[in-house]
Amino acid sequence: MQRVLVTGAKGFIGKHTLPLLLSRGFEVHAVSSKFIQSDDNYFWHQTDLLKFDQIKDLISQVAPSHLLHFAWYTEQKKYWSSPKNLPWLQSSLVLLDAFKNNGGKRAVFAGTCAEYEWKFSTYFENKTPLNPNTLYGACKHSLQTVLDSYSRETQLSTAWGRIFFLFGPEEHPDRLVSFIIKSLLKNKIASCSRGDQLRDFLYVEDVASAFVSILQSDIEGPINIGSGNAITVKDLILKIGIKLDKCHLIKFNAIPTPKDDPHQLVANITKLAKEVKWAPKYNLDAGIDKTIHWWRKRLL
Fold first, then answer.
1. CB-CB neighbours of 30 under 10 Å
2. Taking Cα atoms as reference points, which of 25, 46, 44 lies closest to residue 212?
3. CA distances (Å), 121 to each of 197, 198, 276, in order?
4. Residues 53-92: pLDDT tens digits?
5. Helix H segments across 14-134?
6. Which residues are CB-contacts of 54 (< 8 A; sequence separation ≥ 6)?
7. Half-sphere exposure of residue 250: CA atoms within 13 angstroms, side-chain side
8. Phi, psi values for residue 250, rounded to 5°
9. Tell me, what DSSP letter sits at residue 114?
10. Which DSSP symbol is given to 11?
11. Which residues fall within 8 angstroms of residue 135, CB to CB, at 6 or more apart?
12. Does pTM top 0.70 for this prediction?
């Protein structure tokens, strides 16, 4: 049986990978900073991934054949520029080396579209320039660069999932989709920018399934994870308003659009679709419906 270790296993994406991995025959080992009792399905490991000795002890104990690495600093509105990105870059490198040195065979790490130079429309792996303008993007890009070189030198099979825009239940309430849903369900005004930016949104369970499919493939290097479809932020917000019959609470042009906000960010997903042979389970409407249902249960 193949044994997989998932970091960030209680996080927004990581939690959705666990049942998928279990259904595909993996022995699933999950990492959390807090104690969680292991059960018949998952082996939980309480580990501080910023402490190198704990990383090495964990990898030595589990000896995973596969690794899905999601854990990172993600505090909303702070992670883009926080120096706390640096320790996560360092710990990820320690994790990578320990994984390889303990017999690891296949690793997939989570990246971000923030690695790209944001002045294009559609973004292609190994073609669109990489020139991050945030510390978060720079640290992720640095990790991907080392991962790529390390893999070539050691013959470790690795891939890098470059995530675009995701949404779903349990997302931070200040993120766009959750903010709009929460505001409208509470009958509060949702103040928005003009909303003409084009973005690529993918439901979180599909993001998780894409990572699991990549892990089970032999495709290496960066792989965009998105829908491949563009929608304006305004149209996305109006979809939510129509579903809740509360468009009158949405106020466009109420807040300024950031000056450095790119007009269009859309993933080319040819590699994901054709080489990994992955397809989403949910369309945008279905994902919004599931997210609304979750917020209704939470708020009403």
1. 24
2. 25
3. 11, 9, 23
4. 999 999 999 999 999 999 999 999 899 999 999 999 999 9
5. 14-23, 52-62, 85-101
6. 47, 48
7. 26
8. -90, 125
9. G
10. S
11. 80, 81, 82, 83, 85, 86
12. yes
Nearest to 243 by CA among 162, 184, 199, 188: 184
Q: Is 300 exposed, middle or buried (0-12, 13-18, 19+ CB in 10 A)?
A: exposed
DSSP label at residue 258: P
Instruction: Give helix then strand counts, H and E, for the chain.
Output: 9, 15
Q: What is the rounded CA–CA span in Å between residue 113 and residue 96?
A: 21
- 228 is written with which tokens? 């491949």
**H or E segment at 296?**
helix 284-299
Helix spans in 75-203 (H): 85-101, 135-154, 176-185
Which architecture does CATH list for 3-167+201-227+266-281?
3-Layer(aba) Sandwich (3.40)
Q: What is the pLDDT of residues 203-225, one digit of tens each?
A: 999 999 999 999 999 999 999 99
Structure tokens at 120: 């294009």
Choice among 62-66, 73-77, 161-165, 286-290 with the minimum mean pLDDT: 73-77
Please answer whether residues 72 and 112 qualify as being in contact, where contact means their C-beta atoms are separated by less than 8 angstroms.
no
**Cβ proximity of 28 and 41 under 8 Å:** yes
Cα–Cα distance for residue pair 104/271, rounded to 1 Å: 24
Q: Amino acid letter at 210?
A: A
Cα–Cα distance list, 202 to 31, 157, 163, 267, 280 (Å): 25, 26, 9, 11, 8
Kindly list the distances between the CA atom of residue 229 and the CA atoms of 117, 122, 143, 201, in Å, as whole numbers in the listed order: 19, 10, 27, 8
CA dihedral 14, 19, 25, 27 (to 10 degrees): 60
